[in-house]
């Protein structure tokens, strides 16, 4: 079996596909990657596979988006995703991914194409090539109306290549949807007709244990009596002023803190730091989390699900995009707290951290969530199901679905 994986350039979208890509490769199948040039430096560092340059990079896509719709550069808060997603992923990224993705499919000749659910060019390119495809979520399932708005921007390509308008879901769910959202964080149930199968978002047991002193300075690792807090604002919107506010809120508390500043913030910008705080651009999250007692983050799906897989209470400070719905679900599950907008101040952050560390209910709920994630099908189990489907023609069994909850508007 030959499988072509494809993602849009955001690191969270790329990382979401890596466990399944590695599992398919480990089972002896041919695997290739299709994505922006910047992703081709990232993916091969995890697994050396053939790469095809497909679509614009993140900065190029943003430049095109704001050049065409300058008013979107000021979009902030909970409505930003609703305004930006259709144009960014439909008009800008999908339209420029389509032709090079078709060329990659022609060159690699896959038996299956797997894309994440913002890669709207995948269903069209796969259908034209007559190849089955799978859509994997990078977080929560996308609202149907947002997908429809994005697909409208590439409707002309559907008509040109197929002679028909696109389906309302852009073909994303024509064959199979792999849902990495844990049941307790699942919003309203997916449509009954959607062929969905769960996939464990992260495998907490997959990373070999690493001693803490290999990850942080020795004196910090030695202070085992102090709870360890991991602080990250992800890779897309690292604001040094918010990082400083969080660190000021934690100052004077009996804690150790490891800060991932991200690609846009130099650790030196946070100086001076006390000896109980260590900052670096990139932190090996999967290796650090087993040592932590609390996670403070932006609420990106990757960080939320990884912390949940380790049974860690979380404080979320959402900044953009799907972070608001991710964190609303987290708070609804009682595994964490969320601070929005003006609430992201020194006093509110300090109080929230004190609550999360002192009230056992948060840890107990987070541990139940970790157990739930551990029961989801692993990447290897899903890879086996895909084998049987593609090689033997057996349908992928679709397990029953748990009812979700309604997210706030």
CATH topology of the largest domain: Rossmann fold
CATH architecture of the largest domain: 3-Layer(aba) Sandwich
Q: What portion of residues belong to β-strands? A: 5-15%
Mean of pLDDT: 86
In terms of structural class, how would the helical and strand content be classed?
alpha/beta
Output the helix-strand order: EHEHEHHEHEHHEEHEHEEHEHEHEHHH
Instruction: Provide the gyration radius in Å.
Output: 21 Å
Shape category = globular
Number of strands: 13
Provide the spatial order of strands within the biggest beta sheet: 3-2-1-4-5-6-7
Q: Which range best describes the helical content: under 10%, 10-25%, 25-40%, 40-55%, 55-70% or over 70%?
A: 40-55%
Low-pLDDT stretches: 405-409
CATH superfamily of the largest domain: Glycogen Phosphorylase B
Largest sheet data:
7 strands, parallel
Rounded to the nearest angstrom, the distance between the terminal CA atoms is: 43 Å
Count of separate DSSP helical elements? 15
| CATH class category name of the largest domain | Alpha Beta
Number of domains: 2
Keywords: Glycosyltransferase, Transferase
Organism: Piscinibacter gummiphilus
Pfam families: EryCIII-like_C, EryCIII-like_N
Family: Belongs to the glycosyltransferase 28 family.
């Amino acid at each position: 079996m030959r499988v072509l994986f494809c993602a849009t350039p955001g690191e969270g979208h790329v990382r979401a596909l890596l466990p399944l890509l590695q599992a398919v490769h480990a089972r002896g199948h041919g695997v290739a990657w299709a994505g922006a040039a910047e992703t081709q430096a990232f993916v091969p560092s995890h697994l050396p596979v053939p790469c095809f340059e497909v679509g614009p990079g993140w900065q190029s896509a943003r430049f095109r988006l704001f050049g065409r719709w300058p008013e979107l550069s000021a979009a902030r808060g909970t409505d930003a995703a609703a305004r930006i997603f259709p144009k960014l992923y439909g008009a800008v990224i999908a339209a420029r991914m389509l032709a090079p993705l078709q060329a990659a499919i022609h060159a690699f000749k896959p038996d299956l194409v797997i894309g994440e659910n913002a890669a709207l060019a995948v269903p069209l390119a796969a259908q034209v090539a007559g190849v089955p495809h799978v859509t994997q979520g990078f977080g929560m399932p996308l609202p149907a109306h947002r997908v429809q708005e994005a697909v409208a921007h590439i409707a002309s390509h559907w008509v040109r290549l197929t002679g028909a308008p696109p389906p309302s879901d852009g073909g994303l769910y024509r064959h199979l949807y792999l849902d990495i959202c844990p049941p307790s964080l699942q919003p309203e149930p997916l449509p009954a007709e959607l062929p969905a199968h769960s996939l464990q978002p992260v495998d907490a047991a997959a990373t070999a244990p690493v001693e803490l002193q290999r990850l942080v300075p020795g004196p910090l690792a030695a202070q085992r009596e102090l709870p360890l807090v991991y602080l990250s604002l992800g890779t897309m919107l690292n604001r040094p002023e918010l990082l400083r506010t969080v660190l000021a809120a934690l100052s004077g508390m009996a804690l150790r803190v490891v800060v991932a500043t991200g690609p846009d913030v130099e650790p030196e910008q946070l100086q001076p730091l006390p000896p109980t705080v260590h900052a670096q651009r990139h932190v090996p999250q999967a290796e650090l989390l087993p040592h932590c007692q609390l996670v403070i983050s932006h609420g990106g799906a990757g960080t939320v699900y990884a912390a949940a897989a380790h049974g860690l209470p979380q404080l979320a400070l959402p900044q953009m995009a799907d972070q608001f719905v991710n964190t609303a679900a987290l708070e609804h599950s009682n595994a964490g707290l969320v601070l929005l907008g003006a609430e992201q101040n020194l006093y509110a952050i300090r109080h929230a951290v004190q609550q999360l560390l002192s009230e056992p209910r948060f840890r107990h709920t987070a541990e139940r969530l970790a157990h739930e994630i551990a029961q989801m099908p692993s990447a290897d189990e899903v890879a086996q199901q895909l084998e049987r489907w593609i090689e033997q023609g057996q349908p992928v069994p679709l397990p029953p679905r748990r009812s979700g909850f309604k997210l706030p508007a």
